[in-house]
Design a protein that fits this description.
The complex is a heterodimer of chains A (about 160) and B (about 425). By secondary structure, chain A is of the alpha/beta class. Chain A contains seven helices and seven strands; from the N terminus they run E-H-H-H-E-H-E-H-E-H-E-E-E-H. Classes of the chains: A alpha/beta (about 160), B alpha/beta (about 425).
Amino acid sequence: MKGNVIKYARDNIDTDVIIPGTYLKIHDYAELATHAMEGLDPDFHSKVKEGDFILSGKNFGCGSSREHAPIALSHSGIKAVLALSFARIFYRNSVDGAFLLPIEIKQDTYDGISDSDEIEIDVSKNEIKNITKNQTYKMKPFSEIIGKIIAAGGLFKYKPDQD
Amino acid sequence: MNIVEKILARGAAKSSVAPDDVVFAKVDKVMMHDVSGPGVIKVFDKLKKQGISVDKLWDPAKVWVAEDHFVPSAEKVSAENIVKLSKFTKQYGIEKHFKYGMGQYGICHTISHEEAMVMPGDVYVGGDSHTNTTGALGAFACGLGHTDIAYVLLYGEIWFKVPETCYFKLNGKLPEHVMAKDLILKIVGDIGNDGGTYQTMQFGGSGIDEMSVESRLTLCNMTTEAGAKNGIVEPDQKVVDYLTQRGATNFNLIKGDEDAEYSKVFEYESSEMEPTIAKPFSPENTCVVREAPSVELDKSYIGSCTGAKYEDLEAAARILKGRKVKIRTEILPAAISIYQRAMENGLLKIFLDAGVTVGPPTCGACCGAHMGVLAKDEICISTTNRNFPGRMGHVESQTYLASPLVAAASAVTGKITDPRDL
């Protein structure tokens, strides 16, 4: 996966800013995407490109269980969110619904990658390459179950009995 | 094993489990509402296209449905979602659908205890992050998204990583002017809004023995604000009595072993607790009310699963009796059963005499959905659970989270007020 980074240099990006509560009644994925990040960055929809990544600090996706949050980001073109840590429901919604990859990074990765940098993520090697700056970082590996669900393409395609 | 490990072990049909084990646990109850329900219906539509059978649910008797976020419908999209939900419950034979305008209905987490929908020892999942609330009855109660709820509806089980458990030992009785809301705000302020991530927050000690079931529900409700997977209290006679009054029978009281292990233990002296608020824009941004900034409030909101149970309305009524509100004040009982008791016991008259508007049960403005959302620069004191930017309306509005006593006292003065200083 290769793409450009949209960096939000802050912690606790919550689901109310990822997709404000007034849009929870909407279940059309394309329409939800037009409101993604509206509570924090009203320009997000106009600047995001297919294949982009979001980079942020601690506790990304905290707050509500709304699956609208990973849906809105995914249908905006976001393939992965890289963050120092994630809130648990956002994390499992992203994986179980196969919307995007929630990638836990370390402080050096967070510090090393700037807004607009082009990066390449290789999950098989747990590696993130910063093409713009010619640096390479290690991502935290997925746990066994998360790795298997991602590889299967979401919870409904994962067959626990075949383990 | 502690209580959560025991419940998950039972659900997974294993003799024991330990933190970090991944299990597929059988689910005893599952809930969805008018936001997660249509989300689940969308997942069903996708599954159909992929050739996965969605012809029948694993067990419609274990599923229950609430209408709460967008009722009464403010516009046609919400109205259509309610129609969609009704068609779904009819098609799949779900009988426990609490409909707006047809007797008992209310906020899903409130219905969970008012109607004894969840029992001690249950593995209970809901399509809402504040599903944690119901852990106060001694259940493993955990919020999930649409895909996971769809999976549970079809197969009756779901994966969990067994969480580590933080134990909060509460000593003694809270002072009269302090509520469980103050205590949980203090705890969230202390551990931070990721302080409980991936973990269970369990509450115990003499402070819990002293506490009503409704107060315990408030504690567990806001474990979500610390990022916890679930909140839980071991069930006791108070829980049994509470649920028996609501028609429940056949209890399976699971409790932790004497030598149960906890990842961390925190201790709080109830007598030292003070009325507490969370300032904008995070539930962890707490201070005691007497050190609150001097701001001119525009509104007081007493509502939501966190702050509009019967006990919360009683607390507000103690303050509002014989007084007038100085700012716009809304009280929305969290379920019709609570509304009715408030009427029978004279609370509604106290509220109306004070100048308050009493509204129907709804999540409404708590999540910025409708029914009294905030304008730009408006400042609200609220008994709800979150105050992120834009949570209750405009992204430049502000919400202070408080107990019903503090929200009512502040309604009377127009400033953030400690009930002792009224």
